[in-house]
Amino acid sequence: MKKVKVRGKYVFLSLVFLVLGFMLSYSYQFAKVENEQRLKEQQWTREYQYKQMLIDQEQANIKLQKELATKQANVRKVEEKLAKQEQVLFNLVEDVEKLRMYTGKIKVKGKGIEVTLSDSSYIPTEENVNNYIVHENHVFNVVNELLIAGASAVSINGQRLTKESYVACNGPVITIDGNQFPAPFVISAIGDPDVLYPALNIAGGVKDQLVEDHVVVKISKQDAIEMSPVIGSEAR
């Protein structure tokens, strides 16, 4: 009977250890599963937070891009306005320079043409000598044609013409702004030679009319013509 009790004790202890092992194993597995689930939840939470942060950042970027586009549009408007103002100012300065040039206020130089008008070398004895010399109307016709063709500055025998200039004929000489000049009369014009030259040589034009009036006409293109400002004007 004593041996049976010992064995029973071992059996009981074995059962206790078995149950205890099972409980430990179950607790371990439960803790493991719970830990894994907690890790998954933490990972999901972090991923959700990161995604939310990314979404917030993208929305902030979109907002900033819109603000940048608006500011760039405003800058372009300001630049266009400034460009227009600069263009207007440039045009005004250019117009002032042209007016100064036309009024003889500044020294000018450039390409152009030179027209020489001379009295006829042959005057029949029975003819009136006035019909074979250069008169102011001949000079007027040449000057007007040159200005119409785009000449920016004109001079006669070195005398710069302005909007206030006057030309008068007095026998064999011509008076320009109070200064007398004898023939030949050299009319210089600054402008595009390829425009001014043909303008005077049109069939039936100024040159043909001058020749018909017995005026000797010589026209040549010039690479460099220089005109001083009118005396008393602003020089450069």
From TrEMBL:
Keywords associated with the record: Coiled coil, RNA-binding
Coiled-coil segments: 54-95
Protein name: Uncharacterized protein YlxW (UPF0749 family)
Family: Belongs to the UPF0749 family.
Gene3D superfamilies: Protein of unknown function DUF881
Domain of life of the organism encoding this protein: Bacteria
InterPro entries for the chain: DUF881
Organism field: Priestia iocasae
PANTHER family, A to Z: UPF0749 PROTEIN RV1825, UPF0749 PROTEIN YLXX
Pfam families named in the record: DUF881
